[in-house]
Design brief:
With about 180 residues, the chain is α/β, with parallel strands linked by helices. It has one domain: P-loop containing nucleotide triphosphate hydrolases (Rossmann fold, 3-Layer(aba) Sandwich), CATH 3.40.50.300. It is about 45% helix and about 25% strand. It contains 7 helices and 9 strands, in the order E-H-E-E-E-H-E-E-H-E-H-E-H-H-E-H. Strand 5 and strand 6 form a beta hairpin.
Length: about 180
């Protein structure tokens, strides 16, 4: 079994929901907590969903090689995976999931070719738009930017080891788990 699995896909495809389902049903799996420069959404807690950091702190993390990968997403927010917790978990033999963006997945594959990259895809672009609007967390302008980004991200599915379509969370999570266990 590959111990490092990268899960990526376009915004609102349900990556976080699938990962939460996997964690709830498989307590031996851990997920990396990313750092981000975006503001917390309602209900998010620093250190749980993300480490919310300033741009200056993010720059410091880059300069000190504290990030396994990082990228600017949706034209203005930066996200990155703190290196230390991932390396410690893998050294301890833990199964680790990175839920990151496409750019980050490419960086991880370049530095850790043994990583298992899984792309979560929507059933259709219309369904993706419906999910994004239904979240109610973005303005119409932000939705437009995210949909443009999603179309670019959907075109990069071929860079991944596997593609799983998220029709329904439990089914998608089981397919991801099967791929994690067979790799």
């Amino acid at each position: 079994m590959t111990r490092l699995t990268v899960i990526a896909g376009p915004t609102a495809v349900g990556k976080g929901t699938v990962v939460r389902y996997l964690l709830e049903h498989n307590p031996d799996i851990q997920v990396s907590v990313s750092a981000t420069t975006r503001s917390p959404r309602v209900g998010e807690t620093n250190g749980v969903e993300y480490f919310f950091v300033s741009n200056d702190e993010f720059d410091r993390m880059i300069a000190n090689d504290e990030l396994l990968e990082y990228a600017t997403v949706h034209l203005n927010n930066r996200y990155g995976t703190p290196r230390g917790p991932v390396e410690r978990a893998l050294a301890a033999g833990k199964q680790m999931i990175l839920e990151i963006d496409i750019q980050g997945a490419e960086q991880v594959k370049a530095s850790m070719p043994e990583a298992n990259l899984i792309f979560i895809a929507p059933p259709s672009l219309d369904e993706l738009k419906k999910r994004l609007v239904g979240r109610g967390t973005e303005t119409p302008e932000e939705i437009a930017i995210r949909l443009e980004t999603a179309e670019i991200e959907l075109a990069s599915q071929g860079l991944f080891d596997h593609v799983v379509i998220n029709h329904e969370v439990a089914q998608c999570a089981q397919e991801v788990l099967d791929l994690m266990q067979s790799s």
